[in-house]
Write a structure and sequence with these properties.
6 domains, about 1000 residues, D-Maltodextrin-Binding Protein, domain 2, alpha/beta, single chain, about 20% strand, eight-stranded mixed β-barrel, globular, about 45% helix, 35 helices
């Protein structure tokens, strides 16, 4: 009976709420917040909640690449919407199946029932005929304009923006916002549509567009040129879906009872937690060119601004970092106290105060401007256990901690705040029970006093979001530049500054104690004072040990982290002249292992590697887990021979790791000598990184490289090539060459292999072995592969249209392209665009590609085969798993590596038997056998004798430009095979 009455009262309250006027967002029509025509109320009774959790209904959620909202990480969908849906599940009991889609495909998938809902959809009137929107927003996105890190485009400079090439995801709401933005400010964008954000990012890196529009401040390798608007986004379902009422009510409950959850998700995924970079406005650049200096006021009593006082110097480090990022120099103006530091701003004797509570204006006698908060510090209390913050308790705080007091009062307006001149007065008032608790101040001041045994540390929900305070008439350029500089600092950057605080030396502590306890020394004598000193030193050392544990301990392995390694290595090398070597060991394929075995599998691998490496340490040697799959080692070896022996022993241990994990574990390792040590560990690390980056990542075995000065030259050359590669492709410096392939039986032309050549304007070619490995590492090889495919298709189409004979063409496909999710789709779309039959294209693959992800590799091969594309296994015999590859993959052609011919030429009977057996085996498997590297008539005759079908090499023809190859085909004809 009582439950029925309560339910009826709840319904009446909801109906009353529905009848009251509802304010719509100013930039959206009301229907954006009331998408359903007849609103349905959905009450989550305890019975319904229990039923929902028991049923665990599966909901198919359509996701697409939206910054912060959805993203795929190691095979798992994460982001704002993914976390919010988990919160919704607390009410609905839903579990989720993630269905990849695009914005353009979403309406059809919803209508066909392939997807039940989606998130991240902005309101547009025309979409109401397709979707039902939730009545409340799911969140907000920040419409921003991203440019390349090295772009000269200035912040909010419409002259720079005019006629800019701007990428935007097809159908995204940001397109409409941009139209209004450009119309209002009188300039134009040349928009370029993309189906996915990743393609848009890559186009920016290649220089094909000047900027792109996104709904998040986060952008790897970019900086922000404009923040344009804050727009709501929603969950959507198909029209009249039964999911909408419970989804609406779950969102309503979250907005009512968990607004902090929505705010936290916004901060985590959409706004400013990760590293952000900004360009400057033209006026800001001119202002900064004058090398401005600002006067920073601070209290001389403030430990966080004083290197000589026990505790932290966090604010000094923060101001130094902001100065470095902004280009603004600071002059520091000490004041006797914090209120007097604020007064310096009013008097015009200072421009900035180092820290202030943003709500201080309500209490200040003169107006102040505040920056964006840079550190959200918790406000703690020391008081009696029975004192409960917010229950009308009496709280003491010093004038020095005025901002802390204001922050606490903002969180607990019902408590009484009393201000004192000193911390000792606060403590005395607490002991006399005039106050129930007091605010000790900064985090490092939070230790419990020894003379207050009945006191406890009380946590509160009060936070002090530290900001910079500005005098009211300060230059607006100073505020804008400093605000955006603060936004470029991630929470990790701030944490690093906090952990880098200087530990006071015992001497400084002793002097401080002499000043503080001089009376005790006189009265109590030497022994009492010594006891006080030892106690303070003990507490301080314990406190610093705790900080060092956080700063220097790697949480995954439990061992030292990179910072501790550098510290210890510097100390060790500075004091010893023994021959030490620095090693950077990298676990290859860690991302693939994380994807296939989950992060637990990847974490287990890192732990096992760490233990294996640690067991090999000797006395006075170091190890650290640096980051992800990288380890740092400092080994003491008498010479390079001993070093090589120890590295080989470690590589051999990978066999046991494979047995434990059930997967191949390989390493790349860069090594550099540290002798003679010049005191700069950064240089040693750079040399080790240079050596490690030179190790090929496509081999079948673990490899290492010793640093050599020649590597620096190679690295500089590679940097030069990377700087030139995009422009070279755009300017036609890359050319497709063809190397003919001839049938050995009658010397007729069988086909050709398409090769890439880089010929700069000076006519001096850059050889493939200089740029192909580099482009495979940086991903630009994808663009070259597609360029070759398009060029070959255009050549084939041109000859077919002219009625001229054509030959089949083999093209190489890199793993960077082959393992992209839409590879086969893109490949076939290019053939279709030129109307080229699939039978004219042979795709060359290598067995090492299967080693990366065999299941995905097989799937892509099957798709190509189903469409009539022939497959050739390149470099057969170069690796170690060739026979397994013949069994695993549906191949058409085997390309024997040149090594077979070299071995046969040696005259050894074993080599002759092996090559003959391989060709015979290929024939029995109905495979076409082609041998590369044929350079002499004797080699051709030998291959013919053992039954090889086709040859390719200088004996027949060298690689030639397309125009020359056209004449070659005309003069030789093409065989029917």
């Amino acid at each position: 009976m009582l439950r029925n009455i309560l339910s009826a009262l709840l319904l009446l309250c909801l109906l009353a709420a529905a009848g009251s006027p509802r304010a719509a967002a100013p930039d959206l029509p009301p229907q954006a917040y009331m998408a359903t025509k007849d609103r349905t109320f959905y009450y989550f009774s305890p019975e319904i909640l229990a039923r929902n959790q028991k049923e665990r209904k599966t909901i198919r959620v359509g996701w697409f690449d939206l910054s912060g909202i959805f993203q795929q990480r190691h095979g798992t969908i994460v982001g704002y919407a993914a976390d919010l849906l988990q919160a919704v599940s607390a009410y609905t009991g839903w579990q989720y199946e993630w269905v990849h889609t695009t914005l353009a495909e979403l309406p059809d998938k919803l209508e066909r029932g392939e997807v039940d809902m989606a998130c991240g959809i902005s309101y547009m009137p025309e979409r109401e005929a397709v979707f039902d929107y939730t009545s409340l927003p799911a969140g907000y996105e920040c419409i921003t304009l991203h440019i390349a890190e090295n772009s000269p485009i200035r912040y909010m400079d419409f002259r720079d923006f005019d006629h800019m090439r701007v990428g935007i995801v097809e159908g995204a709401y940001g397109g409409k916002v941009i139209e209004e933005f450009t119309r209002q400010y009188g300039f134009t964008f040349r928009t370029h549509p993309f189906t996915a954000k990743q393609a848009m990012r890559e186009a920016l890196q290649r220089g094909e567009i000047d900027a792109y529009i996104d709904g998040s401040l986060h952008g790897a390798g970019t900086k922000i040129a404009a923040i344009i608007a804050m727009e709501p986004f929603f969950f959507v379902t198909a029209r009249n879906s039964e999911l909408m009422p419970p989804l609406n009510e779950a969102l309503n409950q979250l907005h009512l009872y968990s607004p902090w959850l929505l705010a936290g998700l916004f901060d985590s995924y959409m706004h400013g937690i990760q590293v952000v970079s900004f360009s400057q406005t033209r006026a800001e650049e001119e202002w900064l060119a004058g090398k401005p200096r600002l006067r920073v006021a601070y209290s001389a009593q403030q430990t966080m601004m004083n290197d000589r006082m026990p505790g932290s110097n966090f604010l000094i480090r923060f101001m130094e970092e902001i100065s470095r990022r902004s280009g603004i120099a600071f002059d520091y103006v000490p004041a006797p106290s914090y209120p007097e530091a604020l007064a310096l701003l009013k008097e015009g004797k200072a421009d900035v105060v180092s820290n202030i509570f943003a709500g201080m204006n309500k209490y200040a006698e003169h107006p102040l401007l505040v920056s964006r908060p840079f550190y959200d510090m918790p406000v703690l209390l020391i008081g009696e256990e029975k004192a409960v913050p917010g229950r009308g308790i009496r709280v003491g705080v010093t004038h020095e901690l005025l901002s802390f007091g204001r922050a606490y009062a903002a969180a607990y307006p019902g408590d009484t705040i009393t201000y004192y001149d000193s911390m000792q007065q606060c403590v005395d008032a607490f002991q006399r029970q005039i106050i129930d608790a007091y605010i000790p101040g900064y985090t490092n001041a939070g230790a419990l006093p020894d003379d207050l045994p009945h006191a406890s540390m009380l946590t509160t929900r009060a936070r002090y979001p530290m900001s910079l305070g500005f005098r009211y008439d300060i230059s607006p350029y100073a505020i804008s530049v400093l605000n955006r500089s603060i936004m470029t600092m991630s929470s990790a950057d701030v944490d690093a500054l906090l952990l880098a605080r200087t530990s006071p030396s015992p001497g400084i502590i002793l002097l401080d104690m002499l000043r503080k306890y001089s009376l005790e020394l006189i009265i109590g004598g030497i022994l009492l004072f010594a006891a006080i000193i030892l106690r303070v030193l003990h507490v301080n050392r314990r406190h610093m040990r705790e900080l060092e544990e956080v700063a220097y301990r790697d949480p995954l392995t439990g061992g030292n982290n990179r910072a501790r390694f550098i510290h210890d290595a510097h100390r060790l090398l500075r004091n010893r002249q023994a021959p030490y070597y620095l090693l950077l060991v990298n676990v290859r394929r860690l991302k693939l292992i994380n994807r296939t075995r989950g992060h637990r599998g990847g974490d287990l691998l890192i732990k096992l590697c760490y233990r294996t490496l640690r067991r090999q340490l000797r006395g006075n040697e170091l190890i650290a887990h640096a980051t992800a799959g990288k380890f740092l080692l400092l080994w003491q070896c008498q010479d390079v021979a001993e070093l090589r022996q120890r590295i080989d022993a470690f590589f051999d241990s990978a066999i046991s790791l494979r047995q434990k994990l059930g997967t191949t574990v390989l390493f790349s390792c860069g090594v550099t000598s540290t002798m003679p040590y010049d005191g700069n560990m950064a240089n040693c690390l750079l040399r080790a990184e240079t050596a490690e980056s030179s190790v090929a990542d496509d081999s079948y075995r673990s490899s290492y490289a010793l640093y050599d000065a020649r590597l620096e030259a190679v690295l500089l050359k590679q940097n030069e090539l990377e700087d030139r590669m995009t422009g070279a492709l755009r300017n036609g410096e890359f050319q497709v060459y063809m190397q003919p392939q001839h049938n050995l039986a009658d010397n007729s032309l069988h086909g050709a292999e398409a090769l890439i050549r880089w010929i700069p304007p000076n006519g001096k070619p850059i050889y493939p072995d200089e740029f192909i490995p580099l482009f495979e590492r940086n991903g630009f090889i994808r663009e070259l592969d597609l360029f070759v495919l398009r060029t070959v298709c255009a050549w084939l189409r041109q000859r077919m249209d002219a009625g001229l004979p054509v030959s089949a063409v083999s093209i190489n496909q890199s793993k960077a392209l082959f393992f992209s999710t839409d590879y086969v789709k893109v490949f076939l779309s290019i053939l279709a665009a030129y109307n080229v039959p699939t039978s004219l294209i042979v795709v060359e693959i290598t067995e090492s590609m299967a080693w990366l992800d065999e299941e995905l590799f097989k799937s892509s091969l099957a798709e190509l085969k189903a469409c009539g594309v022939r497959l050739a296994l390149d470099d057969f015999g170069k690796g170690y798993a060739s026979l397994a590859a013949l069994q695993s993959f549906e191949l058409d052609i085997i390309k024997l590596d040149k090594a077979f011919l070299d071995n046969a030429a040696s005259g050894e009977a074993a080599a002759d038997v092996i090559i003959g057996s391989v060709i015979s085996m290929g024939k029995r498997l109905h495979l076409f056998m082609l041998c590369e590297g044929v350079e002499t008539a004797e080699q051709r005759d030998y291959l013919t004798r053992v039954g090889c079908d086709c040859g390719q090499g200088y004996f027949f023809a060298r690689p030639m430009p397309l125009a020359e190859y056209s004449h070659y085909v005309d003069s030789h004809g093409v065989s029917a095979s």
